[in-house]
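Weekly modeling sync, notes
Attendees: AB, CL, MP (scribe)

Item 1: holo prediction request
CL wants a bound-state model with FNR before deciding which constructs to order. AB pointed out that an apo prediction alone won't tell us much about the pocket. Agreed to run with the ligand included and paste results into these notes for async review.

Input as submitted:
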Amino acid sequence: MTTDKLGYQAPSEIKELDIVNTYDLEKQAGELLPKGGFDYIAGGAGDEYTLKQNIDAFNLKRILPRVLADVEYPKTQTSIFGQDIPSPIIMAPIAAHGLAHQSKEVGTAKGVSEYGTILTISTYSGSDFDETAKVVNDTPKWFQLYMSKDNEVNKAILDEAKADGASAIILTADATTMGNREKDKRNAFVFPFDMPIVSRHLRKSVEDQLLNIIYMESKQKITVEDVRFIAEYSELPVMVKGIQSPEDALKAIEAGAAGIWVSNHGGRQLDGAPASFETLASISEVVAKRVPIIFDSGVRRGEHVFKALASGADIVAIGRPVLYGLALGGWKGVTSVFNYFEKDLKRIMQLAGTQTIEDIKNTELF
Ligand code: FNR
């Protein structure tokens, strides 16, 4: 471990992880990381009711075992926007990976790329996008955008993301103001110096005051016009992230969204909101397979991936567990987390009598 300018000590070890479950990972990461960084990652808004519900709500639906199903060695391969991926499991966009490991987003990118799935890069990344993009080869890169009030800034960020090889844009629409993160207040948490850096363009213009300035400027009035603008300006597929209601899903599709990202930001924004899983089936019904659905918030086991796919998701994104893998084992830890989810999903597929991802999607939960 080394200390950065403000004394934040992120781990640096690189090793494969032997994962029993992702709850153990969280516990181990909690023992290793500085308190401020761990609480920022693990915490949620307010009473953390929604954070807890995100996991608990998966138990509201059950998977019926199917035993005479003629299934062996289930296959998890799938594709999205024409990209083949080894399983329907990707990582969610997350800010400031340097809180978890010294290798920052570069480490995560290598781990994701090694596994072979899609890399998502947050606006509040801690490594330069081009630096991160360099460590992966043909791994598809999706860039997540937090909109600024200043459209010239939005254009500059989109230009940069495109130049660095982004193949899709994720517009995060549920963070127009910060959730009430009480642990961060209690810890007087501030990002360590030079983290996150957002983009070369913005870093040059505002330097280390960056985060405050961006938050102050962050756009609150996000509308369907913004979805249209990003799709037209970037000429890339745009997914709207943070969708929790059928009405918003319909609005996004009408505005030209190429994908609906069902998420409640891992319970970090509106506490008192339902579990993300509880909202999925009704959204899937109105989307009616017109565009792919990406789902996140609370996915901790293969069962959860299975239940999300059976409730209408095409792809499932994992948030905190990927960062815990990064903390505990650098890029190798990230790959271990994806391997864990794939293995666990395959076990569930076998026991539920489903040979393919398509079979899961045709499964009715009990
Ligand atoms: C996030 N999330 C997030 N989302 C986003 O669109 N841009 C971002 O920069 C971040 N940053 C971020 C930081 C941290 C520490 C966390 C835990 C989450 C939300 C993320 O994409 C995703 O929605 C949740 O993490 C999913 O929930 P789970 O899997 O963590 O329960």
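Recorded for review: The mean pLDDT is 92.
Action items: CL to compare against the apo run; MP to circulate these notes.
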